[in-house]
Every structure is written in structure tokens, then in C-alpha cells.
Amino acid sequence: xxxxxxxxxxxxxxxxxxxxxxxxxxxxxxxxxxxxxxxxxxxxxxxxxxxxxxxxxxxxxxxxxxxxxx
Length: 70
Prior knowledge:
Radius of gyration: 18 Å
Shape: rod-shaped
Structural class: mainly alpha
Number of strands: 0
Number of helices: 2
Distance between the termini: 26 Å
Order of helices and strands: HH
Helix content: over 70%
Oligomer: single chain
Largest sheet: none
């Protein structure tokens, strides 16, 4: 699980940096398409966050079901 958290964290950081850079470029005059690119990176970050949350929750559910003792 730790490897998965690191992968999601590193990808999230990369997308966050790319989103901030895209947003900064969108502030320049006559910059077209950069704001859409920044929003796309934000959507990818949300997707990663939801993927991480689902894997954490359902991983714990599966772990509990496997190790259930009566």
C-alpha cells in the first residue's frame, strides 16, 4: 500500500505543478488554451484523489474480510 501512496503522491505533485504553471501562463496576454490545460490538470488531480480514497477504503474492507476470525 505504501508504494501505491507514493505513486499517487508523486503523480499528484506533478499534476499540481503542471496545473500551477499552466495557470500562470494563462495570465499572460494573448495566451490561449492554457486555462483549459490548467483545469484539465485539476481534474486529473481530483481523479487521483478519488482513486486513492477508493483503494484505501476498499483495500481495508477486503483486508478485514480476509482476516475475519470468528
